[in-house]
UniProtKB/TrEMBL annotation, chains A, B:
<dbReference type="Pfam" id="PF13545">
    <property type="entry name" value="HTH_Crp_2"/>
</dbReference>
<dbReference type="GO" id="GO:0005829">
    <property type="term" value="C:cytosol"/>
</dbReference>
<dbReference type="Pfam" id="PF00027">
    <property type="entry name" value="cNMP_binding"/>
</dbReference>
<dbReference type="InterPro" id="IPR018490">
    <property type="entry name" value="cNMP-bd_dom_sf"/>
</dbReference>
<dbReference type="InterPro" id="IPR000595">
    <property type="entry name" value="cNMP-bd_dom"/>
</dbReference>
<dbReference type="InterPro" id="IPR018335">
    <property type="entry name" value="Tscrpt_reg_HTH_Crp-type_CS"/>
</dbReference>
<dbReference type="InterPro" id="IPR050397">
    <property type="entry name" value="Env_Response_Regulators"/>
</dbReference>
<dbReference type="InterPro" id="IPR012318">
    <property type="entry name" value="HTH_CRP"/>
</dbReference>
<keyword id="KW-0804">Transcription</keyword>
<dbReference type="InterPro" id="IPR014710">
    <property type="entry name" value="RmlC-like_jellyroll"/>
</dbReference>
<feature type="domain" description="HTH crp-type">
    <location>
        <begin position="154"/>
        <end position="232"/>
    </location>
</feature>
<feature type="domain" description="Cyclic nucleotide-binding">
    <location>
        <begin position="23"/>
        <end position="140"/>
    </location>
</feature>
<dbReference type="InterPro" id="IPR036388">
    <property type="entry name" value="WH-like_DNA-bd_sf"/>
</dbReference>
<keyword id="KW-0238">DNA-binding</keyword>
<keyword id="KW-0805">Transcription regulation</keyword>
<protein>
    <submittedName>
        <fullName>Helix-turn-helix domain-containing protein</fullName>
    </submittedName>
</protein>
<dbReference type="InterPro" id="IPR036390">
    <property type="entry name" value="WH_DNA-bd_sf"/>
</dbReference>
DNA sequence: TCGCGCGCTTGATCTGGGTCAAAGTTAACC
DNA sequence: GGTTAACTTTGACCCAGATCAAGCGCGCGA
């Protein structure tokens, strides 16, 4: 299962791209050294499963680069994505043996891993880590609740618009692109993955994207490259007016 | 807005019904004394709004008794419940000014409150509180993700069965009822509140409850009193087979 | 005791999105 | 450079659940 996995030469925490957003964000230099002792890197290829639901997890860690998804599957095969893991997001749960979800890399992914036991011990002695993890978990909970509204009460068009606006927004903040006028980004998900995220079928996703294109809300180049000429228009289509603190 | 609110005479933490499940669960006696200094009780009547979405929160706290809900509302009035707060559940978010959701008491509720600032300060000096809060938040996140599957992929009948089995399960653990054979409990929610939880209309909720009754999955006395003759049958109807660790 | 209202049930009809089917696109791989 | 397979689009049709509309029944206040 892991034969195609390569181990990259480790790099220094101080120059890590997610140094100031991951679990380690609040750590002082000495705390970082302690973390550095127990960390290692793992690479996953696009499509590869990082962790299977039910498996016991012997590590926790952060996504350094790439995108992974958290999904739940019913016996009959219906699946629902329950989390989208971007760089700096944390994987695994301290104090729990197994994973409740499948974690799958949707692009090539580099993860910064810590063996679970040592990490848990370190966490007890290092409040900065627990504090940051609490903060991140609360943010994830807010995001999950936002998605409950999307899943429970929005129609297909609003769902697509919601997903696009979220991807656009995080892309703008991650890449710090100027955002003068039009937003431009690449969809990191297939139509099927979008459907799994939104509780739709891939056909409906395709139709609604076509409709948004036809109505001029978005512009498409190829299947994945999206231009949003007017972000507030997209927000309107998503059903949440207030322009989301995008330009705060 | 708060004129009908009464302040109950405070009682001792040591004999508090949620002593061992709330944020304070891990606190030692001395830590509890520190908490006791900044705590106060508030009572809310059924139907009363505890916190309005967007309001700045000057306190955080635990539900001591009764049931409250967390809901999100869109401009056009569509609402989605995003959390169900039972005794011992925590309300409010340290490190954030305003509430993102409406918090509404669905039954009479007693809350154990802490002024936000002092609580945050105390939390910094008391890892036991932060640890417990992290644990509770991770559990809430798991519950939220479970609901995302329900909202995104289950049909109306499965949704109702899922809700019933969750209520049945927590009722069994809270009240420590023997659970020999049939489960019996009262629905703490109106049909409309169930609909808001499940992303359905109240008519569909009503129809599906009638259908489950007709099919012998549940038995109803009045509108609220439910008997589940065969719990595993209910689980099957909910779409998740594995009998949920109910008898662990 | 009556009547009013709220919460609930049930029926009739409509429709958004699912399902099934087929064909178009793109990119990877001989 | 052509074949293939994965991904996507589009069309036709159908059904689960929404919507609209009546009525029921219990509890509360006068």
């Amino acid at each position: 299962m892991l034969q195609d996995e390569k181990v990259k030469s480790p790099h220094e925490c101080e120059e890590c791209p997610i140094r100031h957003r991951a679990v380690c964000a609040r750590c002082e230099t000495d705390e970082l050294e302690r973390l550095e002792e127990i960390k290692y890197y793992r690479n996953f290829e696009a499509g590869q499963t990082v962790i299977w639901s039910g498996d016991k997890m012997d590590f926790v860690g952060s996504v350094v680069s790439g995108i992974a998804t958290l999904t739940q599957t019913m016996e009959d095969g219906r699946t629902q994505m329950v989390g989208l893991l971007l760089p700096s997001d944390f994987v695994g749960r301290p104090g729990r043996e197994g994973s409740a979800y499948d974690v799958v890399a949707t692009t090539d992914v580099v993860m910064c891993c810590f063996r679970k036991k040592p990490f848990e011990q370190l966490m007890e002695r290092t409040p900065h880590i627990a504090q940051r993890l609490l903060e991140m978990t609360l943010d994830e909970l807010d995001a999950a609740r936002e998605w409950m509204l999307v899943l429970g009460r929005k129609n297909a068009r609003e769902k697509i618009a919601s997903l696009l606006s979220i991807i656009a927004r995080r892309d703008a903040t991650l890449n710090l692109r100027p955002t003068e006028g039009a937003l431009v980004f690449d969809l990191p998900l297939t139509r099927e993955a979008m459907a799994d995220y939104l509780g739709l079928t891939l056909e409906t996703v395709s139709r609604q994207i076509s409709a948004l294109k036809r109505d001029g809300v978005i512009h498409l180049e190829g299947k994945r490259h999206v231009t949003v000429p007017d972000f507030s228009r997209l927000m309107e289509e998503a059903g949440d007016d207030s322009d989301g603190g995008m330009f705060a």
